[in-house]
């Protein structure tokens, strides 16, 4: 069923595929992105295994940044062209968390990354580190 | 004798700061050098508990104790307490307001998630007298 070759993308690939504006993380564009996850529910971000993943979200507040750092997310992309406030940018910068904004919807953003080989967290993370 | 203790104060409804104590705890644990899985579990529990206090609890405090054999998080608040602890431990049960849900919380996963990620969990709650959570995590040789 899996006809698309699975591969890691770089933050730069994510930025280009999503035609994204980057607010934080210009210096980390060669960083590998091992998996993708998408949610507007921060509670869900804390229950799954989201380490090393890029988070696509329609939620645009400081808790997105704090939740991402706690959950081990490595980059955040705001969908539907949402613009982060200065407070959100400052938080992201403080934690060294790349922050981008894409004009695409959540669905289209996920599809564009998936079609280039990025997979969900369930396929990318070694079973040994799954939440108990 | 505990190797390290640190107390953090949590202010009710202060969403501008909500989560900062947990981020500090994550940073302390990283600097000591525990395994990433242990740090992830403790940080998630601290954050879930901190958000619970901010959203439901009233003012409170979070005490981090790092012992050689275990790490303990004690969370106390002076809020209304949990009416039915058994119900609150059920996935999906929530008393969060629409305002909190808009922020991405209140899915009824907080306490169940804490239970899943701790090695031992004690919940002491009485109506009108706040909540005391004691979460323990074993330190295993890495």
UniProtKB/TrEMBL annotation, chain A:
What InterPro entries does UniProt report for this protein, alphabetically?
Ser_kin/Pase_Hpr-like_N_sf (IPR028979)
| Source superkingdom | Bacteria
Write down what this protein is called: DRTGG domain-containing protein
TrEMBL record, chain B:
Q: Which UniProt keywords apply?
A: ATP-binding, Nucleotide-binding
Under InterPro entries, the record lists: HATPase_C_sf, HATPase_dom
Spell out the protein name for this chain. Answer: ATP-binding protein
Q: Name one GO molecular function term.
A: ATP binding
> Which stretches make up the Histidine kinase/HSP90-like ATPase domain?
24-136
Signal peptide positions on this chain: none
Gene source species: Candidatus Desulfacyla euxinica
Is ATP-binding included in the keywords of this UniProt record?
yes
Where are the coiled-coil regions?
none
According to its UniProt record, what is one Pfam family this protein matches? HATPase_c_2
User: Which domain of life does the UniProt lineage start with?
Assistant: Bacteria
Determine if Transmembrane helix is one of this entry's keywords.
Answer: no
Q: Which SUPFAM superfamilies match?
A: ATPase domain of HSP90 chaperone/DNA topoisomerase II/histidine kinase (SSF55874)
């Amino acid at each position: 069923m899996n006809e698309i070759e699975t591969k890691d993308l770089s933050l730069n690939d994510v930025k280009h595929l999503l035609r994204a504006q980057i607010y934080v993380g210009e210096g980390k564009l060669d960083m590998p992105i091992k998996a993708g996850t998408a949610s507007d529910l921060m509670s869900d971000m804390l229950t799954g295994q989201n380490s090393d993943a890029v988070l696509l979200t329609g939620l645009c507040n400081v808790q997105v940044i704090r939740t991402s750092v706690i959950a081990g997310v490595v980059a955040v992309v705001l969908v539907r062209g949402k613009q982060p406030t200065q407070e959100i940018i400052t938080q992201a910068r403080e934690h060294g968390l790349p922050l981008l904004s894409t004009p695409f919807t959540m669905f289209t953003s996920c599809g564009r990354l998936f079609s280039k080989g990025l997979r969900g967290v369930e396929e990318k993370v070694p079973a040994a580190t799954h939440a108990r | 004798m505990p190797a390290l203790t640190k107390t953090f104060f949590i202010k009710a409804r202060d969403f501008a700061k909500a989560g900062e104590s947990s981020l500090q705890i994550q940073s302390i644990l990283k600097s000591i050098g525990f395994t990433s899985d242990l740090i992830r579990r403790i940080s998630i529990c601290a954050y879930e508990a901190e958000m619970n206090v901010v959203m439901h609890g009233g003012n409170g405090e979070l005490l981090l104790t790092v012992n050689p054999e275990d790490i303990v998080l004690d969370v106390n608040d002076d809020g209304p307490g949990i009416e039915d602890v058994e119900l609150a431990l059920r996935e999906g049960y929530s008393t969060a307001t629409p305002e909190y849900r808009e922020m991405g919380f209140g899915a009824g996963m907080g306490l169940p998630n804490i239970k899943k990620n701790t090695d031992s969990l004690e919940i002491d709650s009485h109506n009108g007298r706040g909540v005391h959570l004691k979460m323990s995590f074993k330190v295993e040789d890495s």
